[in-house]
Amino acid sequence: QVQVVESGGGSVQSGGSLRLSCVVSGVRYLSGCMGWFRQAPGKEREGVAAIGRSGSTAYADSVKGRFTISKDNAKNTMYLQMNSLQPEDTAMYSCAVSRGDYCSGSWPTPLSYWGQGTQVTVSS
User: Fold this and answer.
1) What is the pLDDT of residues 14-72, one digit of tens each?
2) Is 40 buried (19+), middle (13-18) or exposed (0-12) by CB count in 10 A?
């Protein structure tokens, strides 16, 4: 059974940094694409960053230059380094792992495995 668990969220002040982690268990290796999504209260879920099977990355325009996605295949873990955080980054951040190679470019689809999320709160 595949399990996806996020960690690393918290409360920081504007301009601060956080590093999110997403650990995937129940798979032998990370063969497909993975991504971070976020949802703020009253807003739709949006893609933040994704990393494809080949290591190609994609970012939402709002986080380019501030966030960096990476993964450690040996640890079945994906990371999101978030720098220069702003209050508008406040949201629940969730990790998605594709089922096999079922991806949309570098992005996992809604039919992926999802974690429960980790809350990020940025105060001004």
Assistant:
1) 999 999 999 999 887 777 899 999 999 999 999 999 999 889 999 999 999 999 999 99
2) middle
Which residues are within 8 A (CB) of 37 and not within 5 positions of it... i.e. 6 or more apart? 45, 46, 47, 48, 93, 94, 95, 96
Max alpha carbon distance in the chain (Å)?
42
> Residue 27 corresponds to which tokens in the numbers above?
């798979």
Distance CA 12, CA 25 (A): 29
Residue type, 37: F
Distance CA 1, CA 13 (A): 37
Q: Which tens digit of pLDDT belongs to each residue from 71-124?
A: 999 999 999 999 999 999 999 999 999 988 889 999 999 889 999 999 999 999
